[in-house]
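Contributing: when you submit paired examples, paste them exactly as shown. First protein:
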Amino acid sequence: MASDLELSDFLKNAEKKAFKRAYYHVRDEEAALDIVQDSMIKLCTNYADKPLTEIPLLFQRILSNTVLDWFRRRKTRSALFLNRDDFEIDENPGYFESIDILKGDTDLPSHQSAEIWVSRMQTVAQIEKAVMNLPARQREAFLLRYWEELDVSETAAVMGCSEGSVKTHCSRAILALSKTLSEQGMNP
């Protein structure tokens, strides 16, 4: 059984990656924050009695299911109701920070010029956009395998599919990312 401190430490360490993963799926910062918060609450409420070794996979599965629930609710809501906000144009979209390149993310290292730093941030933004444009299952498999560093069997358990499907989704995601980034002049 995980102690309160261990569970709290796990959630602090998982929070940023979970947000990025949810954001890549829903493309809405507020919704991604809500999804992560709901996932964390579900984990603490329903699975706090599980061993610490089981918590990471449980959390990933809960996060995946919460994202799917968000899409289902959104689909139902949009089928039943029209929102006045749907007809307004957002002139000031929210700011979203790119993937942290270094620890202390926005600090400009003294040994690095501003030009190099800006170039790296632009490259990261291009990669993030390419990942966000992947089909949902490919994106999920790619993020679980290479962002969350889960092995194939763990990824299959979280996604609820076979290991072969995970390998196929990852392979297709890598090919699509490679093609997209090569077209943009990067050598992945």
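Second protein:
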Amino acid sequence: MFYPFEMERYLETLLGKRDPLLREMEEQALKETIPVVTPTVGNFLNLLVHMSKAQAVLEIGTAIGYSTIWLARATEKTGGHVTTIDMNKDRRRRALIYFERAGLQNGITALEGDARKILPTLDSKFDFVFIDAAKGEYLDYLNLIYPLIAPEGLLVVDNVLFRGWVVPESTFAPKYDRMVGGLRQFLQELCENPDFSTTVLPFGDGVSISRKCKL
């Protein structure tokens, strides 16, 4: 996190009480260092789906289903459906249990496998796409997801500022060079793409929001 940890905690207090299931998932993710969105980002996703009245939602990176539940609780209100993809078999199994406990299993389709192989097989158009998966693959996802986003659809991507290291002259361990370089290139291409209107918000670990232009 590239701004004070206390700021994130303060933002969480503004969300009010989260239900026991979400709190349990947050604690489990922290205990096992499973990458999930922060509660503030989860709430933001829920709000965006509500505001855009999205029907078809696609998520790349299920993990244990934390962000998926935030999304699906919104599509439950909009009358939509969430399709989520992850290649980790064990985490997908655990996510399915959480979906059932949340009573959302009928509103979620969880696909198992490499998103880079699954995306070309999808023939649906999505109103809302959320990416929170391997950072080094973001450029691949961008190219594959483009034809699947409906006109005026939203693309939301998490961790795009990656601890603030994407900022030029940042200092970090050499092992992150490739990942940071890839994220910088991803942001550059996304923000320069004339078919998208994009902004980047510096909360959580950085979130980009893009709207696909109406053709």
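If you have annotations for the second protein, write them as plain sentences, like these:
DSSP finds eight helices and seven strands in the chain.
The helical segments are 5-13, 20-32, 39-52, 66-78, 89-101, 115-118, 138-145, 177-192.
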